[in-house]
Design a protein that fits this description.
alpha+beta
Length: 121
């Protein structure tokens, strides 16, 4: 009831359109991108984490959407790892290349953490 009352009093536009790629768009991009789908590269995603870091709320409607994508990857060679990094730095479809892309070797694989690109939807 409290939420309904607050919504009735709410004036102006509430930003419900996601400004960053949705989870489904992110999964579609990753599953069809040649760097991941071409078996000759041998790059496999072993874990994926999609996080909304900031988003609008009823009390802060002007907060912009910001999200990060974290991947754990199995990559067979340093050459494939370099190819992946070079590809991601130039492909601005999903990733905000103006912000840091964290790419590290961890044990038997690699981790990648990056910010999702905002669109002008």
């Amino acid at each position: 009831d409290q939420l309904k009352a607050h919504l009735r009093k709410q004036k102006g536009f509430f930003p419900v359109n996601l400004e960053i790629p949705a989870v489904t768009e992110t999964l579609a991009y990753l599953s069809t991108h040649p760097i991941f789908s071409d078996p000759t590269h041998g790059i496999e995603i072993t874990s994926l984490r999609y996080e909304l870091d900031t988003y609008p709320t009823l009390n802060h409607i002007n907060t912009r959407y910001d999200g990060t994508l974290s991947l754990e990857l199995s990559i067979p060679s340093p050459t494939s790892a370099t190819l992946l990094m070079d590809t991601l730095k130039t492909d601005t479809t999903l990733i905000d290349t103006q912000r840091d892309i964290d790419f590290q070797r961890t044990g038997s694989g690699y981790t990648l953490k990056c910010h999702l690109k905002r669109s002008n939807r």
